[in-house]
Amino acid sequence: MRAFNNLFPLKNFFIVSAIAAFLGCLILIFGCAPTTQQVSPEVDTARQKAIQDSLQKAYLFELDKNWSTAYEYYKNKTYRSSIRPFWKVIELDTINRFKDKYSLLSNAYVKLNNPDSAQIVLELGIEEYPDNAHLHRTLAYFLDGRGLTEEAIQEYEKATELDSSQVNDWKALGNLYIKINDYDKAIMAFETVVKLDPTDQDTHQALSQLYQSSGDQEAAIQRMEEVKKLVPDDTQNLFKLGQAYFNLSDYDNAIINFEEFLKYKHKDTNVMQYLGAANQNKGSFNRAISIYKEVLELNPENKKIYTDIATCYREIGQYQTARNYARRALQIDASYGMAYIVIGEIYESQVEKCYTARGQKLPEFDDKLVYQLAYEQYQKAAKDLQFKDMAERKMNYLKDFLPTKEDKFFHKETKPKDPCYNWIYK
Question: Which of 147, 149, 208, 304 is the most buried (most CB within 10 A)?
């Protein structure tokens, strides 16, 4: 800053020169200065006032002339020509007559692609006007552009302290907090934005992402609901909102948002699968089956959907139909572990239904034979690494219900006698 001041004359030098010149004129006009014996005190005071007034007029004339010149060049976008008179204004303006001088000069440097000088001007301006929010926010913008994040934050914080009503300051500050991973402060800044402008869709979305990152799903949902009010057809927001409700097991609200999404994008199979799963998880199995079948019409090679349909049919007790759909998944991929798991679950469900129908609390040999079939399905599933852990857990659960050596010694049958199981062998 000291080095920069050397480029221009000092204010005091200009003022002293002006006074000397003016006194010289007075001497030429009135002759030698009168002595105190020659002039009464009243006349001397009046003369001093006249001199001061004349000096003030000369000073204001010079100040206004430079301002007018600088501003005219600036207004006409002749920025290079405006630089020198603007600096003259800064040098002369000890009475703070032109408070925009730093802002305009810095902007002139920006237009001339000289950001370094623009920053110097802003720093000088802040020294003179430390309570000028505009200078702080403009300097913050320059510092951010130069990658000086911490310094930019300090200037934006000062700007918001001086003037808390500027939405863009809070948004910029929030984004800078994210850069330094201070998410709590970022949330605070963005919450201020939406208080100032409840219609700011982008900030609501940014807040929802921040809340999701922090694990506050309910706060994230609240923000996405605000976006939904502002832009009901924002399908990206509807999908994220549906997902958020789904993850909280609020399937009713998940269904509402997925269905609204599909009003705008009718054939989005990803959302249709979410909608089917939400209905399945809340126990609306027939509705889920209907949705899953629509997905298959669009994507008949989706093996997972076949197993989802199979699971739904198992839940409503249609075991043979359930197995048929699981087997269709295996026709697409014979190594698909989930299909084997679903078939095993179908057999387990059938066992429970059969021995319960007989009025028994524990499985008999017939039932154990079907448990053995389920166990074998889980063995096949375990070959698929994606489902190996799940299959092994199910095998561990079933091993105590499998036929023992003693069971096989006393029972020579390899298939159950109970007609409840006849469909399995078809």
Answer: 208
Instruction: Please state, in angstroms and rounded to a whole number, the distance separating the CA atoms of residues 121 and 139.
Output: 9
∠ at Cα 48 (47, 52), nearest 5°? Answer: 120
Helix H segments across 265-364?
Answer: 269-281, 285-298, 303-315, 319-332, 337-357
Q: Is-same-fold flag (1-33+43-129; 301-426)?
A: yes
Domain range list for the chain: 1-33+43-129, 301-426
Q: Residues 302, 338: contact at Cβ < 8 Å?
A: no
**Whose CA is closest to 126, among 137, 116, 115, 117?**
137
How far, in Å, CA of 387 to CA of 377, rounded? 12
Specify the CATH class of 1-33+43-129 in words.
Answer: mainly alpha
Res 343: pLDDT: 98
Q: How confident is the model at residue 12 (pLDDT cuts 50, 70, 90)?
A: very low
The SS3 call for residue 267 is: coil
Q: Which residues contact 79 (CB under 8 A, 6 or more apart)?
A: 73, 108, 109, 111, 112
Q: Encode pLDDT of 36-93 as tens digits.
A: 445 456 667 877 878 887 888 888 888 888 999 999 999 999 999 999 999 998 988 8
What digits encode the pLDDT tens for the residues 216-233?
999 999 999 999 999 999
Q: Are 209 and 194 in contact (CB under 8 A)?
A: no
CB 185 within 8 A of CB 177: yes
- State pTM to two decimals: 0.71
Q: Residue 382: which of 351, 338, 413, 318 has the closest Cα?
A: 338
Q: How confident is the model at residue 29 (pLDDT cuts 50, 70, 90)?
A: very low
Report the C-alpha gap between 70 and 81 in whole angstroms.
Answer: 8
Q: For the domain covering 301-426, report its CATH number.
A: 1.25.40.10
